[in-house]
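Re-run with default settings, no changes from the original entry. Doing this only to confirm the output is reproducible before filing.
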Amino acid sequence: MSTSDQAAEESGLFELDYKPAKGRFLIASKGIQPGDTIISERAFSTVLLNKNNYSICCYCYKHSKVFTNCKGCLRSRYCSDACKLTAWKRYHWFECFVEDYLAKVQAETALALRTLLQAAYTVAENTTSGEDVLTKIREDFVTTVDKNDVAALKTYLSNYMGVYHLQTHCHEKDAQSTFVSVHKEVVSLAKLLAECVSLCDKLKILERDHTKLNTHDKSALLGNVFENLAFKSYWNLESFDIRFWKFFLTVKSEGMQDDGSASRVSIQELLFQPPTSMQAIIERLLMRHALQTRTNGQAIFEIHSSVGESPVYRLEQQRLGTGFFPTMSMMNHSCSPNTTISFSGRNIQVRASRRIRKGEEISHCYGPHFCKHSLSERQEALRSQYFFTCQCKICIEDSRDVDRALFRMQFHAFKCSKCGNPVRPVSDHKTKDGGNCIDEKCGKWQNFDKGRAVLERYQSDYSAAQLLLEQNKPRLALQSLKKILKYLQDVLYRNHVKIAEVNDQIAQCYVILHEYSSAIPHLAKSIAINGMLYGTDSEEIAHEYQKLASLHFNTGNLTHAAKYARKVLNAYKLHYGHGDKKYYPPGTEEMRRIEDICHQYVK
């Protein structure tokens, strides 16, 4: 594998470990400080969301003012000829001619196909490591390889085997639904790919020495699949005619029909019976990667700025696509992780969000976070998608620590109509929907019927206010949001997340109307609530501080502008690194300028 394609950059800060109760996981090999980069990894394979095909480069995922289009299809655009050629050699040579079919398949199938084509390219690119990869896969076809062999896995993480050995969870009941939903697509694509391999052999396009692979029949068959699916192998051969290839693939893809064979195979038969044909090998590999997507596919996102005519940055997280990051996938989940992640194109960086001791596990949040979800919500989400019951430190503490549970409850609690304190729901299902005030001196019982009716009304009213904003009617939206805030304050506890949400939207309306002084108290109230919820050094609060710094700067309060700009820059150093500016969110340079200007005028 070439240096440019090395999957993960070794930081020397982590080691791979294994325990039966935890599976594979990463631990700190030495003390790690907040902001240190632990993993820097390029995705082995990725697919864009269809909606992003026309806005960013389809290969490197970077924005560009000028794009070059693929001449064979309408869906793929690139920031340069180099990206276009690289994508073509790796996978687009096939995908280009079946674009209409791929536009209809599920994301799991699309990523599985991309992964197999990318694997074929990397195996053929380096004959030495390629032989080893093929041998390991053949062994797995014959007998179950110990996927928990840590010593072996350390070498796998930098090549295709790192992806190949990701968990499929094929024995879980819910995996059957994924299998059923993608199986027909997998069979159709496998059939077409097998015909491509057969055509290569018949036309003798490849003039390679297969003697190294002839030791085992299954290795020869497997090697044939991978070598023939590596388009770079015959890209420059005079005997190859792209016009014929386009005609062949287009005709074959248009004729892809389900012959009923897909319904006659079980998930166990497909994944565990030794394959005896090229199509069976391809089906097995495609299905394996499709199943892996559910639990190991990592969402790729960027921080998007929607400034418009306002001088205040509004930052939003925007999903670009999904990819396989084999090293990063070795991290186990924690509802209170000690890392944070950021992306630059298809590259991910994992950084420490707090001090990590030597030997401590390095963890990542799979989605359910203790700041955003209750213990029961987190456990249910993790069981349904990832098939485990979380036993992280925060979950154990939440189940035992009453004070901690009460603290978190305030962000989702109704307000006691007598004293204004939060109302704790009663868990007994035989009791009517309601709860008691947490203040023992009050203890008032309160029915939740009124509160739930208000929340239902809120959903429709809030959506209507958002629509007014989209229609460029900020004054009407502001009037609506103030009414919403008033009736929410009648039934919700003062630190409820929805009160923070509405205050933030009111501040946005004032900003659009250029009434910056009026926006500040509402934004400050939102920040006060979210600061308690997420922590004052969190990325979420850093984005809010960025807005507040801009507001103070535009109202001439340079002391407060400098204060909050510094808070933003300190938080971004923690979450995005100490020097690599390409990972920083939009507006970071603006915060630096604000701080510099303020320091010039404020002594």
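The longest helix spans residues 175-203. The CA atoms of residues 194 and 326 lie 27 Å apart.
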